[in-house]
# Entry
Amino acid sequence: MRGPADSPAGLVGLATEQVRDDVGDLDTLTVDAIVGLMCAEARRAPAAVAVAGPAITRAVEAVVLRLQAGGRLVYVGAGTAGRLGMLDAAEAGPTFSAPPGQVVAVLAGGDGAVSVPAERAEDDRDAGSRAMTELGIGPADAVVGISASGRTPYVVAAVETARGAGAVTVGLACNVGSPLGQAAELAIEVAVGPEVIGGSTRLNAGTAQKIVLNIISTAAMVRLGKVHGTLMVELRPTNQKLRDRAVRIVAAVAAVSLSEARAALGQAMWQPKVAAVMLVGRTDRDRALALLAERNGRLRPVLDALSAPAGARPAAAPAVPTQRSRRLGVGAAVVDGTLVRGDVAVRAGRIVAVGLPGSGQDLAIPGLVDLQVNGYAGVDILEADPDALRSMGAALIRAGVFAYLPTLVSGEVAPTVEAIRRITQYIEHPGQGGGPVASPLGVHLEGPFLAPGRAGAHRLRHLRPPDPVLLAELLGAGRVSLLTLAPELPGALALIADAVARGVVVSLGHSAATAEEARAAHAAGATAVTHLFNGMPPLASRSPGLAASALLLPGLTPQVIADGLHVADEMVRLAFQAAPGRCTLVSDAIAAAGVGDGPFRLGDLDIEVRDGVARRSDGTLAGSALGLATGLVTLHRLGVSLTDSVDAATRRPAQLLGEPRVGRLIPGGSANLIVVDGALSLRRVLAAGRELDPPAPR
# Structure
């Protein structure tokens, strides 16, 4: 909504809103005079940009650091400013071969507002904040808010949310001392002054913003090694014009004829860098790719090394020998939701290259992320001390799970609060030694605000009506990241809004909510549904309920237990077909997972596991004795697409929590990954590039 600072009175003092008396006769001028005036006025934009040079420098340096670490550059804007961000982001791929998702633009009103104005969308603060949350913005990202006035509510709220999530934030405005500049960590304020037509900021303000965005993206890509001299050596030649340009680039870099350059590009699959190395080094594509991978894809040090006299130290060589990269021997990798054919190279704990030539058959995917782990390897979360959490984390990572949410079912308040404190202390002070372990991402509270009629394995005496005081006590005990509740309970909507305001993701579950109640909960801030089809009424023709809402509401993430017991195969297929790109896998693992049959505990419940099925004494299913890797195999068996299956167990749950550091396999990122076979069965686990042998059997 429009606030006081964005009202007409709040805009009066802005330089970009001033009306110029010196051109008050503009409408009476001849065309020649109008054009002459505007040509002269256009000089003011680059002059104002030059004054902002130091601020732009600081912004570029911050952006480069995030991109080098595998993060994203995200533009967010409304109207003309937002369209400029869309334009700059769209050019990153063809100009610099930026991988999909590395440079992203968010426009108020959605992509359709590029051609059809949606001017009212810029006043929606909630939408701006929500856009950042849905993108999973986090510490690895750089977010640039763009607004000529510097007061656009959508943009200011987006930047505030991104900064709160730990991202580095930049505010690009054309007024000094703007709310956007104050909201961002770094302010770029390009003071172009009043426009020829009062308030028409598509003119000088738009030109200045376009220049600044060009500088940010271009300078960042140059620093990332995407340019050699002034040549676009990572150009993506997707048409005849660009292929001709690629030929000229390679010919210039390698000092060869155009025909030689074209032939080399054909052998290099039209990758200019690779072709140049092949020609200068007189080598094949495989060796050229390896040489580039050893130098983080930078062409100049490779060419310097190839051109150095025998026995001489290359000018770009480091003073201390660096660790050589090694190949994983895989046939493909899933890189941010895209299947990339070829091998993967790792060095010093990081991924240095993907898509390398090779004859492997297996698939490299990110380490798994499980948002519902009640226990594992004989450890129950409620009673787990730091040693038990470390032991469980070691077992989880050997089973392919690199990040997880310790889950506490409904229980007595005091033990629950104490468990939250212990887990939080472990997260903040995990200790050293003992080898790699899976990282807890906070705590998942599954209850106690659940519907008694849909309690499942939860003890009825532990359930509570929505209570803001109790919620404050639970959240105040430590790092709670996810809360499952029943939205139909009196007071639940207010509790959802309260939890979301405190940075907690709210999931709907153990509920008999109607579709209307589910929609109201989503509007209040809920973004997920806990173990879809379990703990809720079945789908019915006249009572769609929570299950149907989970599949139909685009803003909800359905979580599915695909262990072959909790949900029938047909229903798993239905979920992934009805909500493509939204479903996530969870294990609902208990202490029996990774161990086998026998008696176990789930919170303060006694559980018996027989033939791999966990039940209470009354026969109620009580969690799962299988791990998340089992769900991945199930999805493949049911015909769910490869990338959808992998994303459901890796990137998507991490995005739900706003955790961009986990669940991703990207060049420059940590080499925390697993290798699976054609059926998606676990074969190998690598933590920071180090093989963990052998992987756990479950």
Remarks:
- The domain at 366-692 is CATH 3.20.20.140 (TIM Barrel).
- The radius of gyration is 28 Å.
- The first helix runs from residue 8 to 11.
